[in-house]
């Protein structure tokens, strides 16, 4: 006998002895004895072959929990006892477990326990439990057992004291243990036919039968369970345990086991409706959010499960009874009566459930029937609320109407008017939130007969806006806006204009408007609605009516409303009919300085719109009328006032309307330019200024000039000859430093350059560029000035073709003057200075640019200055930033030297190159190594390919000596073994500039540095630095033999494989690699490794990668390399195998990749494997055999059906798309191989459609519809094949039947099976409307090729429910589907 068996026997004996000892001693010793049992059970749990001890223990526990004695109650309330019972449930065979549970009446004990713990004491006792061993026993756990992971931090641990057990904390602790044990028991009973021996399945059914009682009896378990959930939600100590998340699933599982009957809905309504809806209201925040003791994930899970339970077992049955039994409301009547106690919470939840209940697809009932059902329930709830006091009924009505308005629920006008009368409008209070919901849902409440009195009350209240709170004011404003939309929907906007005028005008004050009715939101809304609900005749009539209103109080209000009309006119017919008429009516009242600001803004807005839309003659008449007032305003009024801004717009409109050559152009231009100068001279408004409510700043003027009036700047420059100082002051930061920031200056400069009228005006843009060049400070500290930074950024953004050579040279001169005299002493400029400056220099030098005193020393000074700034760079990010600056320096040096090394060397070029050679050959300290390497690299790369090389050699240039010096300088940082911290920048720079040396020189001179480079690459890659790949690529290019497994790539982190533009990307671009790896670098590395390698070697690499153990390598990196290798392999078969050729080919690689596809564990791996398979099927078709085609389709079926693959497919919508693409490629490129194997394709299509309809994509509805379109495309490819996909290369021209018709007839023998699967799945799952529409095209194409015999087979193979769905589908096909697409 083995030692393990001996230990098991000893453990069994000890457990039996401990169980027998439970009957010894009094009740107070029970915790200690149970603790000993727990410890013994934990030690031998899962290893025993016999379960007598566990059965004895279970029976003892159930025996001592039975009865009404205090001792039995204490055991029932003791959480560790239920923890032990849950562990025992997991160990005893189901058949024996069922017998023990039935003998000891487990269900009755469970019900009594739940009743006990669902009623905690309201007052906490002062008794403190003694510290005993119960704490340790309750918290103990062991491997291999169901763990009670309770993490609620309570003030008291598990206790055996009856007083503490009756408190809320004790009840919740016991309840958690009870429901966890029950969960374990029910989960063991969830077996499939293939799980375990028959005895297990029989025992599971026996246990289920214990809970198979009537609905009335099962309520004795469900009611206290739901009450316990409410106790947990309302508990004073926040934080829920992990076990609580499964409570609602246990609740639903118990209900699913009961004996169903016709009275189930009534039983649920009587026993659970009030309790359930009250709890659901707390969980969902209906009617208001409240703080609960349970965590948010648990709260969401409970709400989802409880909502599903109430909808399926109460709401939907009551709706069916209403629709099928002559409007029976019995169930809902019971629900309303049972929920009346907490109506403020339960009635909104009831309406929420009712209004969200889905319609049944294919139901015979009409939409009106569903609306009547909702209406009757709404009336029933309102009737019940009338019996409640206002404090309870008003929050319920507000919540219900808020939901109804949000969901656009159809409710009768009479019901809504009764709400308005009883709740919204009272003599003492106005419920603005309720009124807003009413007008949002149905404006007819106030517009139809019976609503006039309500509207009068509301309008009267809106004229008292001074007494409203800010919240009520905002709500009332929204009400008025929605009221205008209601008038517009009723095609009666003219009536709203009259209402607006009567409420906007203030009778007591001729120079005042009602505050609420003069808000800009209302003006914008009316302008948006105008042309959609009025015709030109109606608009003219309302303008005539406005003209007839001559009362002093209405004159100013009329102008304000006409401003909204003017803003809303845009179509030509409206402009012709009402443009000038609107102006004439508005200016019947002469301008006054005392009129309200809103009226002045409307007045000048009308003038602006009339001028911009009118003819030249109309513009002249308008200008003659408004010129005096405009002149006075623009000359004397505050430039920060909104009316002044509107008047300026009118003046600009007059100028543009008269340009060119209009009679009034000079007057308007002079007035506008004078005002622009006035704005430029004025200061910014004070923050505490009371002159204007919303002051207009200089930035507002400039932003409007550059965006809304794009021609204005060009006109000003044409008239004055200079760029407007108002704009230039903001760009150059020459104004108030407190008001102008660097970011605002950049914003203005971008607006200037984005305006095509500016960039296309050569005079304007050239002058502006000259002014920006002058802003570049030439002092040594000028680079730190904000004006210089703005100028540099502006010149960098200017299109390169705009700047002339003189401007480029002037810019370079000013930038060179900023260089420090002594680069060893860094100036007070930040590290961000050189990046834009060097970028600008590179841009300037891309075209011929020879500035004064141009010398190579300038490049040296720049390099030293950049290095001094970055010399303290230690972190990887800082080093990479420094590398970017030195790369810009390298580009600048290359462009500059290339200009000087032209084919014709003049004195200037010779002097420059001589200075460069002398400087590069001079000694260099280690501190200057980085800039020297960059400049050496640029010089050698330009000169060695230049036509002037021969002449330079004649002048004394020794290029080999320079290369030797370059090698000497570069080898130092590579060979010294230092690449950390500050040494990383010289190391990477030396590595980058080695490409000017030939391969043999590098191999000879740097072979000793290979170990250092290998170590550096490994460490950099481990730290996630992209530079590690550059080191590895250098080694692969020159020392590939030194790399061990060069194609074994380990990616440091995973990135998402999803991309929004994946469909439009190339295969290389669709590969998603980690963010720490550059895609281009990865592809280049693989290309370098396999460069010059023959096909057999590539196949050998591919075989090694595919056969490599995934546990010992990085799967994503391996698949990435495999994909690239397949791209490089030839797609054609060799005519004759050579003796050295490998026996491994791409067909075998395809088979291994199919296995790899089903072993992937992440979405990125799955998509890479699928992409590689797609590449093989598409571009390497010559290697694909019949086996490969069948295996591809089988792999698709397995991926859709395998349980292990479901989380992966659900993680990303792209996974399903690639499965569809694999099948699509088989159909397109390998259609002939499906002959005789069509059943494999059918299986794949059935698996794909099952996956489509049975799962919810993570991205929601739109992604699901996209998947449906992809699948429908597969169906149409099968049923409507292209000629190319079915043609045989050896087909003869004498055939009388086309290959396409043969393929369609052949597909018609099988494709009806996919259609039958689609019908069956509609019975099992809810199919959204958009998905059905997307699939219709494919299903109609199946019906196109299905013969009458096939239709009869389908009809015989469906059940009655399936035939109903198929009949509807066939009707749609007969109406819309019989179309060939031609």
From TrEMBL:
Organism domain of life: Eukaryota
Chain intervals for the UniProt region annotation (Disordered): 117-160
InterPro entries: ARM-type_fold, Ribosome_Biogenesis_Reg, Urb2/Npa2_C
Residue spans of biased composition, Low complexity class: 120-131
One BP annotation, GO: ribosome biogenesis
GO cellular component, one term: nucleolus
Domain Nucleolar 27S pre-rRNA processing Urb2/Npa2 C-terminal: 1170-1381
Record-linked Pfam families: Urb2
Protein name: Urb2/Npa2 family-domain-containing protein
């Amino acid at each position: 006998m083995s030692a393990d068996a001996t230990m098991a026997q000893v453990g069994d004996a000890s457990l039996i002895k401990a169980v027998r000892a439970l009957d010894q001693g009094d009740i107070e010793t029970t915790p200690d004895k149970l603790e000993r049992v727990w410890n013994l059970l934990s030690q031998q749990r899962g290893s025993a072959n016999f379960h007598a001890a566990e059965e004895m223990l279970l029976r003892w526990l159930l025996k001592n929990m039975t009865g009404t004695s205090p001792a039995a109650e204490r055991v029932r309330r003791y959480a560790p006892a239920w923890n032990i019972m849950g562990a025992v449930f997991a160990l005893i065979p189901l058949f024996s477990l069922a017998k023990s549970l039935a003998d000891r009446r487990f269900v009755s004990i469970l019900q009594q326990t739940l009743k006990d713990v669902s009623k905690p004491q309201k007052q906490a006792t002062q008794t403190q439990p003694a510290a005993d061993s119960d704490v340790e026993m309750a918290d103990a756990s062991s491997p291999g057992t169901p763990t009670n992971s309770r993490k609620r931090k309570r003030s008291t641990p598990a206790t055996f004291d009856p007083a503490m057990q009756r408190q809320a904390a004790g009840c919740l602790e016991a309840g958690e243990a009870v429901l966890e044990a029950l969960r374990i028991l029910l989960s063991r009973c969830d077996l499939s036919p293939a799980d375990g021996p028959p005895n297990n399945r029989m025992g599971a059914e026996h246990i289920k039968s214990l809970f198979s009682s009537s609905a009335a009896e099962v309520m004795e378990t469900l009611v206290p369970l739901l009450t316990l959930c409410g106790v947990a939600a309302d508990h004073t100590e926040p934080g829920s345990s992990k076990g609580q998340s499964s409570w609602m699933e246990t609740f639903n599982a118990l209900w699913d086991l009961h004996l169903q009957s016709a009275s189930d809905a009534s039983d649920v309504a009587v026993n659970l409706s009030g309790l359930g809806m009250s709890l659901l209201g707390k969980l969902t925040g209906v009617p208001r959010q409240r703080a609960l003791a349970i965590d948010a994930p648990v709260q969401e899970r409970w709400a989802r499960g409880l909502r599903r339970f109430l909808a399926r077992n109460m709401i939907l049955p009551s709706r069916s009874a209403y629709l099928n039994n002559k409007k029976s409301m019995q169930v809902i009547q019971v629900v309303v009566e049972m929920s009346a106690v907490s109506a403020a919470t339960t009635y909104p939840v009831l309406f929420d459930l009712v209004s969200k209940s889905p319609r049944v697809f294919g139901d015979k009932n009409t939409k009106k029937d569903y609306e009547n059902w909702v209406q009757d329930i709404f009336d029933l709830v309102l009737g019940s609320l009338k019996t409640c006091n206002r404090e309870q009924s008003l929050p319920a009505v507000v919540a219900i109407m808020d939901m109804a308005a949000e969901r656009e629920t159809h409710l009768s006008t009479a019901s809504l008017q009764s709400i308005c009368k009883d709740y919204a409008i009272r003599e003492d209070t106005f419920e603005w939130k309720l009124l807003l919901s009413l007008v949002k849902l149905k404006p007819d409440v106030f517009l139809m007969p019976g609503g006039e009195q309500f509207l009068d009350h509301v309008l009267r209240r809106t004229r008292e806006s001074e007494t409203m709170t800010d919240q009520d004011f905002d709500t009332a404003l929204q009400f008025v806006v929605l009221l205008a939309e209601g008038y517009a929907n009723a095609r009666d906007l003219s009536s709203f204009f009259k209402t607006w005028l009567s409420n906007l005008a203030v009778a007591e004050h001729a120079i005042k408007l009602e505050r609420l009715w003069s808000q800009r939101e209302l003006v914008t809304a009316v302008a948006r609605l105008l042309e959609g609900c009025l015709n030109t005749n109606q608009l003219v009539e309302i303008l005539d009516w406005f003209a007839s209103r001559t009362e002093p109080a209405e004159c100013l209000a009329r102008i304000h409303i006409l401003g909204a009309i003017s803003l809303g006119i845009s179509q030509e017919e409206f402009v012709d009919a009402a443009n000038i008429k609107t102006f004439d009516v508005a200016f019947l009242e002469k301008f006054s300085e005392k009129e309200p600001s809103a009226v002045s803004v409307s007045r000048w807005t009308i003038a602006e719109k009339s001028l911009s839309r009118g003819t030249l003659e109309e513009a002249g008449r308008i200008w003659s009328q408004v010129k005096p007032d405009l002149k006075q305003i623009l000359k004397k009024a505050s430039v920060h006032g909104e009316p002044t801004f509107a008047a300026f717009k009118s003046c600009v409109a007059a100028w543009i309307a008269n340009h060119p050559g209009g009679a009034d152009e000079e007057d308007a231009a002079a007035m506008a330019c004078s005002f622009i100068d006035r704005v430029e001279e004025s200061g910014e408004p004070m923050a505490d200024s009371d002159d204007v409510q919303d002051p207009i700043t200089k930035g507002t003027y400039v932003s409007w000039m550059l965006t809304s009036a794009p021609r204005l700047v060009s006109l000003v420059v044409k008239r004055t000859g200079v760029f407007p100082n108002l704009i230039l002051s903001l760009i150059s930061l020459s104004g108030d430093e407190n008001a102008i920031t660097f970011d605002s200056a950049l914003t203005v400069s971008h607006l200037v350059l984005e305006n095509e009228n500016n960039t296309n005006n050569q005079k304007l843009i050239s002058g502006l560029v000259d002014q920006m060049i002058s802003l570049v400070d030439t002092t040594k500290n000028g680079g730190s000035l904000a004006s210089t930074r703005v100028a540099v950024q502006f010149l960098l953004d200017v299109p390169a073709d705009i700047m002339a050579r003189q401007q480029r040279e002037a810019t370079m001169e000013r930038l060179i003057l900023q260089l420090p005299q002594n680069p060893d002493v860094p100036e007070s400029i930040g590290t961000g200075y050189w990046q834009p400056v060097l970028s600008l220099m590179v841009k300037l030098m891309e075209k011929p640019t020879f500035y004064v005193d141009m010398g190579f020393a300038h490049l040296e000074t720049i390099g030293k200055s950049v290095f001094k700034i970055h010399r303290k760079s230690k972190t990887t990010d800082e080093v990479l930033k420094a590398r970017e600056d030195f790369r810009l320096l390298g580009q600048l040096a290359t462009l500059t030297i290339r200009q000087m090394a032209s084919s014709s060397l003049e004195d200037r070029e010779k002097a420059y190159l001589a200075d460069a050679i002398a400087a590069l050959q001079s000694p260099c300290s280690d501190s200057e190594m980085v800039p020297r390497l960059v400049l050496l690299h640029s010089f050698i790369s330009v000169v060695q390919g230049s036509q002037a090389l021969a002449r330079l050699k004649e002048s004394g240039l020794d290029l080999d000596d320079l290369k030797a010096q370059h090698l000497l300088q570069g080898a130092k940082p590579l060979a010294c073994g230092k690449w950390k911290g500050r040494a990383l920048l010289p190391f990477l720079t030396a590595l980058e500039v080695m490409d000017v040396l030939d391969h043999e020189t590098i191999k000879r001179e740097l072979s000793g540095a290979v170990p250092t480079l290998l170590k550096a690459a490994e460490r950099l890659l481990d730290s996630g630095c992209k530079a590690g790949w550059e080191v590895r690529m250098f080694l692969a290019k020159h020392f590939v033999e030194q790399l061990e497994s060069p194609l074994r790539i380990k990616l440091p982190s995973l990135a998402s494989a999803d991309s929004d533009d994946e469909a439009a990307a190339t295969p290389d671009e669709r590969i998603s690699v980690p963010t720490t790896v550059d895609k281009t670098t990865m592809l280049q590395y693989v290309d370098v490794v396999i460069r010059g390698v023959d096909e057999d070697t590539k196949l050998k690499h591919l075989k090694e990668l595919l056969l490599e153990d995934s546990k010992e390598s990085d799967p994503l990196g391996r698949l990435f390399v495999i994909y690239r290798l397949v791209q490089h392999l030839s797609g054609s078969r060799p005519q004759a195998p050579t003796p050295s050729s490998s026996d491994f080919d791409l067909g075998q690689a395809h088979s291994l990749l199919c296995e790899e596809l089903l072993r992937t564990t992440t979405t990125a791996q799955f998509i890479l494997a699928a992409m590689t398979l797609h590449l093989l099927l598409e571009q390497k078709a010559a290697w694909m055999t019949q086996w490969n085609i069948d295996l591809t389709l089988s792999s698709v079926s397995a991926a859709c059906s395998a349980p292990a693959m479901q989380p992966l497919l659900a993680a990303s919508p792209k996974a399903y798309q690639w499965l569809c693409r694999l099948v699509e490629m088989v159909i397109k490129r390998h259609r002939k191989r499906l002959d005789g194997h069509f059943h494999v394709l059918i299986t794949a299509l059935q698996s794909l459609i099952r996956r489509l309809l049975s799962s919810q994509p993570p991205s929601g509805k739109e992604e699901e519809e996209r998947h449906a379109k992809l699948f429908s495309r597969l169906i149409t490819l099968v049923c409507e094949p292209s000629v190319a996909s079915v043609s045989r290369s050896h087909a003869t021209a004498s055939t009388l039947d086309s290959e396409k018709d043969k393929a369609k007839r052949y597909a018609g023998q099988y494709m009806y099976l996919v259609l039958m699967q689609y019908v069956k799945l509609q019975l099992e799952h809810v199919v959204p409307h958009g998905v059905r529409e997307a699939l219709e095209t494919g299903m109609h194409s199946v019906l196109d090729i299905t013969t009458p015999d096939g239709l009869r087979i389908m009809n015989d193979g469906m059940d009655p429910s399936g035939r109903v769905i198929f009949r509807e589908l066939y009707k749609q096909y007969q109406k819309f589907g019989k179309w060939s697409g031609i």
